[in-house]
Amino acid sequence: MLKTLTKAVPLGLLLSAGCILCVPTGFAAGAPRGSLYERLGGMSAIRAVVNDLVTRILADTRVNRWFAHAASNPQEAAAYKSKLADFLCQGTGGPCHYTGADIATAHKGRGVSAEAFAAVVEDLTATLDKLNVSEKEKSDLLEILAPMKQAIVER
């Protein structure tokens, strides 16, 4: 699973990435345990996470300068969200195939700081909390994303 996530998306995608989850309905106590993708609620849940996360990131003055391209027009925003959704879907064991740049290439030379990375993780966590993602699935998702910090942070 970690190898599939080494193909990455820009900080927002990745950290956004940190986001994925289940829709506001949450998880049933006796729900079957499948892939993280299934436990999060499938593609509709991933899209809900991506939509909320991207909205948060674009409003977050600590990091939104790294995402200006995603806010430049509706087509760019839709393309960014689609790539991020595919990234998260694939990384959590779903049927999607992410075709964007790998994490290191996508972030090289962008000057992403440790503080910016942490801010995106905070935004992702807030999104997951808003969508009532369980602690287990939230933890599993963040565990997948944590190793990417090394490839994203440059200062």
Description:
The protein is 60% helix and 0% strand. With 155 residues, it is mainly α. The chain has one domain: Globin-like. It is globular, with a radius of gyration of 14 Å. The two termini are 27 Å apart.
How are the elements arranged and paired?
Blueprint: H1 2-5, H2 11-17, H3 36-40, H4 42-59, H5 68-71, H6 74-91, H7 103-107, H8 114-130, H9 135-145, H10 149-152
Helix pairs in contact: 2-4, 2-6, 2-8, 4-6, 4-8
Residue-averaged pLDDT, rounded? 81
Architecture in CATH? Orthogonal Bundle
Find the CATH superfamily.
Globins
Q: What number of domains? A: 1
The ordered H/E elements are HHHHHHHHHH
Indicate the CATH topology. Answer: Globin-like
* Distance between the first and last residues' Cα: 27 Å
| Percentage of residues in helical conformation | 55-70%
How many alpha or pi helices?
Answer: 10
Helix-strand category: mainly alpha
Shape verdict:
globular
Q: Hey, roughly how much beta strand do the residues contain?
A: under 5%
Q: Rg, please?
A: 14 Å
Number of beta strands? 0
Text of the CATH class: Mainly Alpha
**Main sheet specs:** none
Question: In terms of per-residue confidence, which ranges show pLDDT below 50 for 5 or more consecutive residues?
Answer: 1-32
